[in-house]
Amino acid sequence: IRSFEENNLFLTKGIEVTTKDEIGVLTGAFNDFMESYHDIAEFKKVIEEDGSLSEVYSRIGDAFYGLGINTFILFEVMKGAIRPVFPTEVSDGDMYCNHEIMRDSGLCRAAKTGHTISSLVFRRICRQFYTDNGMNHICLPMIAGDSTIGVVQFILANAEETSDFLENKVKIGR
Fold first, then answer.
1. Average pLDDT in the 108-123 region?
2. Which of 9, 30, 144, 155 could potentially form a cystine with 71 if both were Cys, beta carbons 3.0 to 4.6 Å apart?
3. Residue 65: its pLDDT value, please?
4. Distance separating alpha carbons of residues 126 and 111, to the nearest angstrom
5. Which residues pair with 82 in a beta bridge?
6. Is the peptide bond before 87 cis (omega within 30 degrees of 0)?
7. Residue 46 CA to its chain's centroid (Å)
């Protein structure tokens, strides 16, 4: 910890774990946290240097693909409307929400409230998501300042896919 205070600790190097007791476990957890923090800080730097929003959306989408999360849509919220921005081409068959949200972003519960919306918690939490297809969804709002500027919608087809997603979510949260 003193090395960290004195700026002698590289975020990716961490602290040497020399014991297997509680202090060793705590040190290992601290190292994991610092590595995740470093990765997030680096990602933030990279997207801040992107030349356009479409580059940012593409980079975020590629990051999800890299985590093995393949069924999602990034939506942009602007001027009361919502539109898919990644993947850049979304067919009607790939949309799991009422198409009216495209004209009125207030119908999108995640965009309206700024809260995570998950049918894993409550099946019919969002009246705009078509639940008769057997799919689950998790919608995460993207917030800038006090406004929702976008929504990431993850589509989960079955129990295995849901389990894989939640495992990756835990990795992201570390």
1. 88
2. 155
3. 85
4. 11
5. 77
6. yes
7. 17
